[in-house]
What does this fold into?
Amino acid sequence: MAAITAEPTAVTRPLTAASHGERNPQSLIFLILLWASLAFGILVLVVLLVNTFLEGRSRMDAALFTNYTSQIDPATAGARAAILGTAWVIGTTALLAIPIGVAAAAYLEEFASKTSRFARLVELNVQNLAAVPAIIYGMLAAAAAVAVGIPRNTVIAGGIALALLILPVVIVATREALRAVPQEIRQGSLALGASPMQTLTRQTLPAAVPGIATGTILALSRAMGEAAPLLLLGGLVFVKFDPNGLLSGFTTMPIQIFDWAGRSQVAFQELAAAASILLLVLVIAMNGLAIIIRNKFTTGQ
Amino acid sequence: MNDPTAAPASDPTVTRPPATPQPDDTSGESTVDTTSTITIPRMDPIDAGRITASEAPRAVITTTDVSCYYGSFRAVNEVTMDIGLHEITALIGPSGCGKSTVLRALNRMNDLIPGTRVTGTIAYHGMDIYGKDVDPIEVRRRIGMVFQKPNPFPKSIYDNVAYGPKVTGMKVSNMDDVVEESLRGAALWDEVKDKLKQSAYGLSGGQQQRLCIARTIAVKPEVILMDEPCSALDPIATSRIEDLMLELKEDYTIVIVTHNMQQAARVADRTAFFTAEAAEGHGDRTGHLVEFDETTKIFSNPADSRTEDYISGRFG
It folds into this structure.
């Protein structure tokens, strides 16, 4: 048995030659450009956050949460109605968008024949809906509300507008999550004599929950920051009462911020900044929740 | 397992109207003497071309001129064979010869792939499983399937086994007993009895595959189809599954697709050899059944030279 010896072979290029390596000048320049782009993005974000924080710091007090807005006294005005209004509208949005979106995605992914004209039409429409400007959904919801005879500046109308807005996102996220469930799971279930519907509700959907939850929460946090479609529903900027039902009037945080930021007094600007911080914290908290859900489920199995 | 209403003695050598459901015919000969030698009347007009084993088992599933299509492509051409009760039938052959397709046709799993079509008849106790009124879900409950890659559900071991009885609405007095019985049946009970509530994903590949077998027998099927059940397993796990198959055939009828000829030789009572040949006119390779006989005959004295070439390793 021949011993394996480390005989140096003919003189080859040393391994340390840098000219062809990963650190030649071109790639270094490119790397620096990439870093600069990243730094620019982060810098803008940090400046924005710090600026907002510094401006709104003085108004991050209890009154922001407990008091209603005011026309004359910005020092004691608060975002109480906006916070509650946001909770009501986003809750309604979730109740509308999640069942419809998940059902639509389950149909497209699990039941519709890939070649059926109807399924392709639905799919095309979902893609198109994702590209529709948010304000159009506001117009649609306003028209729908008027058509069925309810005032358009109500929680239900706002919920419909935002649900329509995020429906394509929920459908796409759910489809992706369902697609990620291994085919073997479905086949295993069907081979035991389970019906396609049992397979969906007991195997495929539960396995897809992390993906669905992540996508849906991200969509809801986007809806939370949306002002345009709600502004179109009209008359929502000055609300001094707690919303108490689907037919109640409401305002939301983005609208409240929009209203305050448009006023000339510095105190209102500070109030707007404080409410912005609150909105950011809420959105970050929701995104964090999405990440936690995803991690919990992916490591849990 | 000996269903008295089942058609007795579906002797493949006896002329048998293939598609007609056989009525309850309990004419006393519920057991077939598998030792008696029946010579095959090769010129029988019905059975001309039928490839039969020399000793006929009581057939659970009979396929007659079964062809499977994916769209317009014919994957398998005119397979005619009988699956004997309480026997292990192995389907062997080179890749792409359609043996898995045939297997999946036997419990209508092919239905799940769009564009597939089966012609000919597959009769389960004389009932055409592709008949108009037949519920594929019920077919799959009676004819279970174990897949190539172990595919436990992302649930606990207990829930994996209990899933089938639950969804099929089986009347179960005590689910714990069903789970234990099924896990014992799959020779897995002793290894998992203390961790039934743990995730099935924590088991080894061989254990997962036995769990899949336990899950399958929990719904009390009559036939178990196995699609290369050991191809993802190491030799030790493979040998355990093979031992298990030999035990299971006391109660179940097993059809196994395997790429491992030694495996077929070790476990199967009957072996079907498939191969693929280019059809005339175009290049599509269509699989067909070359020879179907007792395993010992296939491996010692095959009638067809292609079988001999394959089992001796000359091709495939």
Remarks:
- The longest strand of chain B covers residues 59-70.
- Residues 59-151+221-311 of chain B form a domain with the Rossmann fold fold (CATH 3.40.50.300).
- Strands of chain B lie at 59-70, 73-84, 88-92, 116-124, 127-128, 143-146, 223-227, 253-257, 270-278, 285-294.
